[in-house]
Amino acid sequence: MSEMLKGKRGLIMGVANERSIAWGIAKAMAEAGAELAFTYQGEAFGKRLEPLAQSVGSDFMVDVDVTDDASLDAAFDQLGARWSTIDFVVHAIAFSDKSELTGRFLNTSRENFKNSMDISAYSFIEVARRAHPLMVENGGTLLTLTYMGSNRVTPNYNVMGVAKAALESATRYLANDLGPEGIRVNAISPGPMKTLAGAAIGGARKTYKHTDMNAPLRSNATLEAVGGTAVYLASDAGACTTGEIIRVDGGFHVLGMPQAEHL
Ligand code: NAD
Q: How far is the CA of 48 from the centre of ligand 1 (A)?
């Protein structure tokens, strides 16, 4: 992986702590030679991010709430002022009211539906619109994070499954819009991971264990594996891949039912 991203620079959105998928990606990208900038959500996450960003040689951190257009504008203005061009953006952001990530999907409220869609799906479009002018010279890569609950019913994932379906569809539409500019748009779909957002989903520990026991590789996704996939997609090695959903789930998505020993 070393040097695969040498000379490239980009923005990582969504590091909450060292367990965040965005952090796994940031570390792998930095190890591959990329220069990084970060966004964080609010002061408390900013404090957590600071030493992590420093550890990969970055002093570029901007506070962004993706529901606030002004904060997105300010972040991309600052990015453009610092670097006239960028090569990638990683969007690793999702949110839903925890009380609706359990029980029946039928009970999804209008307010949480809209908010979950706004933060977890629509924000990727807002990010793409602001990022692409910074990618006009050399093209670039936009990456987002999704989950299999988008097209298979996963207990308790509920409204987040609908938001991920929208996000995956947006990935394909953005890929088509931005392809002529040499910008590739892809989503990585890891299996369940032990993060803040992951823990908010009802029964997270059971889902994690079930995937670990039954996936063909008999393992869950790791931060390193997701990071490696992001490096590949952002590098020239991924030059002809766009509009794609790449699974990093130990192969779990190919199963029709649990392994015989767990039936
Ligand atoms: P995480 O909690 O570490 O990261 C989620 C991030 O979203 C946080 O940094 C949070 O600050 C940010 N965020 C939420 N609302 C925001 C807002 N309004 N404005 C700006 N930022 C906001 O959890 P994670 O698991 O690393 O999640 C990253 C992505 O990976 C999400 O899209 C998630 O759905 C996806 N994903 C997670 C798993 C899993 O099992 N953990 C599996 C597949 C996909």
A: 15
